[in-house]
Amino acid sequence: MASKPKSKIEPRAGGRILADALVAQGIDHVFAVPGESYLDVLDGLYTVRNSLHLVTCRFEAGAVNMAEAYGKLHGRPAAAFVTRGPGACHASIGVHIAQQDSTPLLLFVGQIPFNETDRESFQEVDYRKMFAPLAKWVTQIDDAARIPELVAHAVDVATSGRPGPVVIALSEEMQKHIVSVPDIPPARVFAPHPDPEAIEAFVKLLKKASRPLAIVGGGWTAAGREAIGKFLRSHNIPTTVSFRRQSFYPGTAENYVGDLGVGSDPALVAKVKEADLILALGTRLAEAVSQGYTLFDQAGSTPIVHVYPDEAEIGRVFRPALGIAGDINAFAASVADLKPGKCAWKDWTAELRALRLKGMVVPDYEGPLNIAQVMRDLEGELEPDAIMTCDAGNFATWPPRFMNLKDGQRFFGPTNGAMGYGVPAAIGLKVVHPERQVVAFVGDGGFLMTGQELATAFHHAVDPIVIVFNNSMYGTIRMYQERTFPGRVSGTALTNPDFAKFIESFGGHGEVVNSTEEFLPAFRRAAKSGKPSVIELRQNPEQITTRQTIAQLRALGAAPKHPVTATAALSARKEGKKRKGR
After folding, report:
1. Sheet of strand 410-412: strand arrangement
2. Which 8-state DSSP code applies to residue 29?
């Protein structure tokens, strides 16, 4: 039987081939700040505009943050496009976020013509060197015939194992070359499942435990999230989420006991040290989660079961009793239907859950605006599938402490502490899902880093709600400053605009909230406005954290430390030797 003749491959320019390659790989959103270094790609994107949504942004860091937030929500990459040199440098913030958050991301960077390489041409940067420490893979396309191959591989790298960012430089003249090359479809790859012996070893460790604790990280699919939740709830294992991973375990579950990260409940942290088995599920056990690498000892006196897709991360700091390398969702499927044993930790789970509920009780903070009560009120107003994005700063500890996420809600923030993330992330997700309620939490400092991206919301006719916590300072740095140098305020005070008038100047909806009672009406007006909205919370600057005031920090910082001098230490050692000699 004669073979079916292949269809004719039409010659195309490199810019068009790249646009077609993105569509072939299932990329449906591009977030971009245009540049002359990839004009031909922009023209190619025009051709595929019915298959791929181009979102024009105002700042490269904002564009990449939007693409990164897309990857967090969907578990597959969007693409960001920036121009060479300064554009790439601005974009590097988002690449670092994607690396530390294990988020799939594609960043395309326009590049100089390759015949000008190493002449310090206009805006020339060697991107392989620049992004090598930040990305999973960095490449440059100089041959248009290789575009489908390299784009397909970039998607595979970004989504396989521990997900992460891939950076692809596009030489300028390559985009103009006319070649005949076929498009490449996505590869269907089945995730690696855990060894049955590993599951048996896991069950044995769990049966020995009387005070287990689960720490849920990121990287879960919808099915994996459901499966791991089924296992943890059926076994009544007290469950925390790692830093800014609230999306992956519902706060309404009876075995949810809080978050481990910046601003964690000290009572929970103390209880973690009493656990006799740690189930680290999809978390690296990084600095924030381990409270500065102090929660566990490196030798593993507290048994740890570490399940993670990257074998190199298992035991990197803390030696586990059992390491399971592989897809965390496949692991979840393997344990979802395990029958619970006697579960000798009923009282332990109840004790930790009680601590969580106690920590959520609204304190009687000084001042007319109680942010804790605002968070409790907001929880009741959010839609069942609402998406929340969070910037970096002290304000970011209020939602995790006083709000519980429902099963269908999502909460995303940068684990690397990058300010300027919350607003563009919210806008990007609202562009992708205009039917869902999207709320951003951001401090006054972070808002003025990327708040101009609200112009992107107007341009694309979407209406996120941005809640600005205004205390007129870089709060986190001020907190550390007061601890170390009490009363010596230097470089941390801020002068702010009227944030409500800022959004109104675009034609949006602005609200200023000075008291607790004003918040709910203001939020409801914003939600009904159908416009991009900013709600400014003018909070008491004295309440620097959810648990401490500036006065309390100063008192602690000013307390005498009684340092041991070198002379005193030497005298103590000599005295000790004398006693031994006796």
Report:
1. 410-412, 387-390, 438-443, 465-470, 533-538, 509-513
2. E
Domain of residue 209 covers 196-359
Of 15-19, 448-452, 559-563, which range is least confident? Answer: 559-563
Claim to verify: residue 385 and residue 299 sit in the same structural domain? no
Instruction: Classify residue 200 as exposed, middle or buried by CB count within 10 Å of its CB (0-12, 13-18, 19+).
Output: exposed
- Give the pLDDT confidence of 126-168 residue by residue, as tens digits: 899 999 999 999 999 999 999 999 999 999 999 999 999 999 9
pLDDT for residue 135: 97
The residue among 359, 393, 410 that closes a domain is: 359
Whether residue 153 sits in one domain with residue 64: yes
Rounded Cα distance, 393 and 400, in Å: 13
CA distance 420 to 390: 9
The residue with tokens 């009780």 is 361
pLDDT in tens, 183-192: 999 988 888 8
CA dihedral for 161, 163, 165, 168, sign (positive or negative): positive
Do residues 102 and 164 both lie within one domain? yes
What is the percentage of the chain residues whose pLDDT exceeds 70? 93
- Residue 554 vs residues 367, 435, 476, 548, 557: alpha-carbon distances, Å: 20, 47, 14, 10, 5
E strand or H helix at 387: strand 387-390
Query: Token pair for residue 212?
Result: 């287990």
